[in-house]
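Today's session is about reading a structure prediction critically. Students often jump straight to the picture, but the first step is always the sequence itself: look for stretches that repeat, for charged clusters, for runs of hydrophobic residues. Only then move on to the predicted structure, which in these notes is written as discrete structure tokens rather than atom positions. Here is the chain we will use throughout the hour.
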Amino acid sequence: MRTYRIAISLLLVLGLLGPLAVSAVGHPLEELQVAIVRAGMAGSHSLRVDLATAGLNAQVADPAELALDTRVGDRAIHVALPLRRMPSRFPVVLDLAAGTVRVAGVTIGSFQPVLPFQDNMRIPIVATVSQGTSAAAAHTTVMVPLPTVIVPGFLNELSRPDGDLMAALARQGYRDLGPAPTLFWYRYESRQCSLEVGGRDLADYVRQIVLPSTYASKINVVGYSLGGLLARWNVAYDVDGWGKLVNRLLLVGVPNEGTVHAYVYAAYPVITFARTPAVRSMLPTFPYVRAAEGEDWQTPPGSGNPALAALNERPMPEGIRLFILYGSAAPDSAGGVRTYAGVTGSLPDALFSYGAGDGVVLVESAQGLPMREGAAVAALAHAVRVNLGAISHRRLLAAGAGEIAAVLTDQFKAPQEGAAVTAPSQQPGPGH
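Below is the predicted structure for this chain, in token form.
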């Protein structure tokens, strides 16, 4: 590990900071003081530290010195400012990409540039001010979370971002506004996109909006429902380098093997949105209809899902930390959450079978487990799985907000990765 020292000549600093200087008058203060008023990213690649001092005496021969020490990743940086007169408050800005130090907008030193972040960053900062035999120090730690993109589900364009999730992430230091955002809610036109088109649009958004706004070479993605399929598509097909771009991938209530609801709703003429490309991309990849009870389950002619089936055959790139969060209400749960598992007879006068799930996605589909004659999704085998309990599909993001925040900030205590989860057995229901 190398340490880079930036020492500024007394003449340069006096000329630079003279207009800001506030000298102590009369007797020196009894106690030398320094405070880090504020510290954080002030732009896509700039770390700003606002400092305040007190107790310095400009009338004595001993000059004052401010030392600022920080470590960004594996690189330690030391900034030394020998001053005869010290301003009471001023900012020090480290441009991590350019490797420069600025005070009052003027470049005063340099260091080797820091590489863009690949994970959450904890940046310790220590400010020390000294004069003669007196010294004082202040310290803080700046938390810079890896930029996280939330990809919501079908019909997201008709609703607002989930307030519970956004608030939970804000409490962990994420921010979606300001000069250095770390949280991005991706709004998209879900009714017109296929998996391929939707995935490409998502990749364009990350390349054009997310990455230029942050100092990172990796991102986290929280994909909810259809949004999780779009994220999986980009990762599996390495769209715009997503195979190496994603650090954590969280799949929340994602129909990884499709949902029977996509088939059922499409049978009703009034539900026009159910016949869109996005809904067709969520048709089941497992057999889900039969002519009568006791007969074999089959896939209806013309209602297969080759795009999702092909996606499920592709591996998960190495290095991606994968988490699956799902709802698991039993078919006869008191909350009335029943998830279609199969259709017996012809719609709309068919009988439905129900299974454990969130009211839209079965637990097997969410986890990529085998369903009837369908195959397991091998790419999801090593995921860490989080059972959110008897939660409806539309409430999953809110109910899982704490777990999502914990996963993204490395505070989640999980069982061994890939731990087996046994889904409740399917149970037939009496009717609609």
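Discussion point for the tutorial: Residues 1-29, 420-432 have pLDDT under 50 and may be disordered.
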